[in-house]
From TrEMBL, chain A:
One of its GO terms (biological process) is transmembrane transport. This is ABC transporter integral membrane protein. GO terms for cellular component: plasma membrane. It comes from Natrialba asiatica (strain ATCC 700177 / DSM 12278 / JCM 9576 / FERM P-10747 / NBRC 102637 / 172P1). Belongs to the binding-protein-dependent transport system permease family. The chain crosses the membrane at residues 12-32, 102-125, 137-164, 196-214, 252-276, 296-322. Signal peptide: none annotated. It comes from the Archaea. Keywords: Cell membrane, Membrane, Transmembrane, Transmembrane helix, Transport. CDD domains: TM_PBP2.
Length: 332, 560
């Protein structure tokens, strides 16, 4: 089976998964107590006709199955619906919020990879030495501390006490410097990094800790492999062994974890965006749930679900591509 | 007037007009009588800062400010359709009201030259407006725009329609005079409802015009809508041709939001923003002690209440049971221990600041009717009225109102009602269980905690929270009342004579305090914090008026 066929197969397999996600989310969101229109108009003196008009406008007066089928029909045409609470197309809201979330998640991953891999290698090569112990403690703390807590502590230290970095918000590099009142692109780039640092570390710490533990374990295992012993016997320099033989093999599980941890990262982004006041999809999702904004909940779920499924497919394909031992499903 | 939702604080506004708007909270509180070392309640009047004037006026006119709101705006800046307090905070600076609030809850003329002439037993109002007012597009503001602003709620089927249903017609007499006829006298009209924001008719002629206008509004106010990024920021620039005095010092004001209180506090402490709204109780002292920060506070017309299920099948249909529950705890102690910096206990179904316009004898009522902490009396009232295994459920949102529910239940447990329980619910579930529940059983709830924010008129509280027509819309106590209870509330609403209204409301409020379909709990204050270089900022009682950056009572600039 070729790579293309394998990929197509995985995409086809993902379709029922995505349908399942939409059905479950739609039912759960609609069964949740509360009426989105009344929540939107709560406390106002409102005519029943106004409520009825809004319900008709959003099709809320129709049976659940009918609404679902209509909704899915629209989704297939690229229409993810209209936010009741914000009175805007869901696609427009997602387009606006996707940038900050992607920027946050990707930078968190970059931070995690850039720190976890070297630290994991160092810990593995200096096993049971003080460096190893410290790195394991750091990893343990990273894994067991929620991102929002790390965020609050970082704000307290670096924004409030030291005043080095801003406590909230992001600066978007795709915008014009004029929009922020900056002197030019160098300042825009500088401020982008300044604003990104704390949320990036807050969200990336968990990924970093997870990856570091795996990297360390895999490197230790790899360094004890027969092929490494053989290389050593041949007199291959230790640096070359590390780089060419042990390191490459040890990265396969890392790729898997990166793909699978995408959902964790997106989940962490919800709270990180809240703590750092970032207008991303995570915060939008939380607010959509609180206001029972059905179509927005559905739209975000579909996008996140799709991202996750695509992430898993890419992981599988990468895995198969990088490791020749992994096949596309044919029998030996 | 609007209820405060669980994830939001003060969200909606009752009426969309500049001065006529009011926001509501949801909540209620209670407390015990003897087990807390209560802190002293803050007196907002201690924070009435002196007026400030800049040494260098030119420098002040170069200054800008960033204000962080506590909730996202709905981004509806058209006063005809806007009904969230946070969009109104922005639009209030863009539009002038026909009347506007003074530094309290009194109205004073703005676009109008004076208070209106009243004819036809309070169903006809004649307004004269100032000449020479220009909208930001250069057109003159005329009587036609005022008439349009009154009628647009009906003509455009606005969600704010219910607040202007009594308007029968608005006719232009000449360029500077307009006559508004009401279908019936409306009591709150002169106190609140007539304070509409004046919008330019020419900018809102077609549906597409109005859509554009909603996110790019054109008013005649002290600031011009300048830049806007949906759900991110709104920037207003000073109107260099503003027609009225004082001219604003600020060159620019930017509104952003941060819904997370801890993060907002972090922002102001780190100096990442110039001013923030809504200081939580627990952060008040810390900010107050910070040399670089100044805290601001004002009483507000918010009203929290513990409301009982008065349906026949509920034990709480018995007024003795309701009073017995109220005697189990002390509201004052609860507020002193839980919310000493941001709230004050109530003694009547209207907040003290509302009463400033009316002067009802609240202190006497407190003494005579309000049920204080008296466990012996509570036991006496409840014994025999309910079974020993009585197990009432008090439902509340999961914030301080949940704490109050817990406290009441603890006190009930202490006097032997071990089955009493508090249930905290998310707001949607809470409303479904209570207010929108057509036939709530005693198992659904025997009391709930919610809140409301009105304005200077008792109608905002008494009609919406007590009149039978609002059952299933704003309340769910099903209190039948005396023969005249509901009629009096309705009648007072449709009377123009304020003295007659006073008499009717007095009777209604005394009955509420005697029969206790709900127990008035406490009123929240409006709070803000600013960096110390923000000058001449004063908190206003109406949340949608904050930050009031230019008025007779303050003209903000930054000195940094």
């Amino acid at each position: 089976m070729g790579l293309l066929r394998y990929t197509a197969g995985r995409v086809v397999q993902a379709i029922p998964v995505l349908i399942g996600i939409t059905v479950i989310t739609f039912i759960l969101a609609n069964l949740a107590p509360g009426d989105p229109v009344r929540l939107m108009l709560q406390g106002q003196e409102v005519n029943q006709e106004v409520i009825a008009r809004i319900e008709r406008q959003y099709g809320l007066h129709r049976p659940l199955h009918e609404r679902y089928l209509t909704y899915m029909g629209n989704v297939l045409q690229g229409d993810l619906g209209h936010s009741i609470h914000r009175d805007r197309p869901v696609t427009a809201l997602l387009a606006q919020r996707a940038g900050p979330t992607l920027m946050l998640v990707l930078s968190a991953y970059a931070f995690a990879l850039a720190t976890a891999i070297p630290l994991g290698i160092i810990a593995a090569t200096r096993r049971n030495e003080p460096t190893d112990h410290v790195s394991r403690i750091v990893a343990l703390i990273g894994v067991s501390t929620p991102s929002f807590w790390i965020g609050i502590v970082l704000i307290l230290i670096f924004a409030i006490q030291l005043g080095w970095l801003p406590s909230s918000g992001l600066v978007y590099p795709w915008r014009s410097p004029d929009q922020y009142g900056y002197s030019g692109y160098p300042e825009l780039a500088y401020q982008t990094i300044r604003h990104l640092l704390l949320p990036m570390i807050a969200l990336g710490t968990l990924q970093m800790a997870t990856l570091m533990r795996v990297e360390r374990t895999q490197m230790i295992e790899s360094l004890q492999g027969e092929y490494v012993k053989l290389a050593r016997a041949y007199g291959v320099p230790e640096r070359t062994i590390l780089r060419k033989h042990a390191f490459q093999v040890a990265q396969l599980p890392i790729i898997t974890i990166i793909g699978l941890n995408l959902s964790t990262a997106l989940g962490g982004a919800v709270l990180t965006e809240y703590v750092f006041n970032i207008n991303g999809i995570g915060r939008l999702f939380l607010e959509a749930i609180q206001s029972l904004d059905y179509q927005l909940i559905m739209g975000i779920t579909i996008v996140i679900g799709t991202m996750f499924v695509v992430g898993v497919i890419i992981t599988d394909i990468s895995y198969a591509y990088i490791d020749p031992r992994v096949t596309y499903g044919e029998h030996d | 007037m609007v209820r405060k939702s669980p994830y939001v604080t003060r969200r909606r506004v009752l009426a969309s007009g500049t001065a006529a708007s009011a926001v509501a909270l949801a909540g209620c509180i209670g407390g015990d009588g003897d087990d807390d070392d209560g802190d002293e309640l803050i007196d907002p009047s201690d924070y009435d800062y002196e007026r400030e004037e800049p040494d260098d006026e030119e420098a002040a006119r170069q200054s800008t400010i960033e204000y962080t709101q506590e909730l996202e705006r709905d981004e509806d800046f058209d006063p005809i359709h806007s009904n969230d307090a946070y969009s109104v905070q922005v639009s209030n600076l863009v539009f002038d009201g026909l009347y506007e609030w003074d530094d309290g809850l009194g109205l004073e003329p703005k676009v109008a030259t004076d208070m209106p002439d009243v004819e036809r037993d309070g169903t006809r109002y004649l307004y004269e407006i100032n000449e020479g007012i220009e909208f930001h597009n250069g057109e003159e503001l005329t009587a036609s725009d005022v008439a349009h602003s009154f009628m647009a709620f009906q003509e455009e089927d606005s969600v704010n329609l219910a607040q202007y249903e009594m308007v029968d017609s608005a006719e232009v007499i000449d360029d500077y005079q307009v006559q508004v006829d009401l279908a019936y006298p409306y009591g709150p009209w002169e106190l609140q409802t007539m304070a509409i924001s004046v919008v330019p008719e020419s900018e809102r002629e077609s549906e597409s015009d109005r859509e554009e206008f909603n996110t790019n509004p054109v008013g005649s106010g002290p600031f011009v809508f300048s830049d806007f990024e949906f759900n991110e920021y709104v920037t207003l620039e000073r109107n260099e041709n503003y027609w009225d005095e004082p001219q604003p010092y600020l060159q620019e004001i930017t509104f952003v939001d941060n819904v997370d209180a801890a993060s907002r506090i972090g922002e102001i402490r780190a100096g990442d923003t110039d001013a923030i709204a809504d200081v939580p109780n627990d952060d008040w002292s810390e900010l107050e002690d910070d040399d670089g920060i100044r805290v601001h506070i004002s009483e507000s017309p918010s009203y929290m209440h513990l409301t009982f299920n008065c349906r026949d099948d509920a034990p709480t249909s018995d007024p003795d049971v309701r009073r017995g529950i109220c005697h189990t705890f002390s509201m004052t102690d609860f507020v002193e221990s839980r919310l000493p910096n941001v709230a004050q206990p109530l003694s009547a179904p209207i907040p003290p600041i509302t009463n400033e316009q009316w002067d009802f004898p609240l202190d006497d009522w407190q003494e005579e009717y309000y049920p204080g902490y008296d466990p012996d009396q509570a036991e006496e009232l409840l014994n025999g009225a309910v079974d020993d295994d009585w197990s009432p459920t008090i439902v509340a949102p999961g914030d301080h109102r949940g704490d109050l529910a817990e406290r009441i239940v603890t006190r009930l447990n202490e006097i032997g009602y071990d089955g009493a329980q508090a249930e905290t619910l998310d707001f949607g579930t809470l409303l479904d269980r209570t207010v929108y529940n057509e036939e709530p059983s005693p198992d659904d709830f025997q009391a709930y905690l919610l809140g409301w924010t009105g304005g200077p008129d008792p109608d905002a509280y008494l009609y919406n929270l007590y009149h039978e027509s609002q059952t299933g819309i704003n309340q769910a106590h099903f209190y039948e009342g005396s023969d005249s209870f509901h009629d009096d509330i309705a009648e007072a609403r449709e009377l123009a004579d304020q003295e007659e209204r006073y008499a009717l409301y007095e009777g209604v409020m005394v009955e509420i305090l005697e029969e206790l379909p709900s127990l008035p709990a406490y009123s929240f204050h409006n709070t803000m914090a600013s960096r110390d270089y923000v000058k001449d900022l004063h908190a206003h009682p109406m949340v949608q008026q904050n930050p009031r950056v230019v008025s007779e009572y303050g003209n903000v600039w930054t000195d940094n």
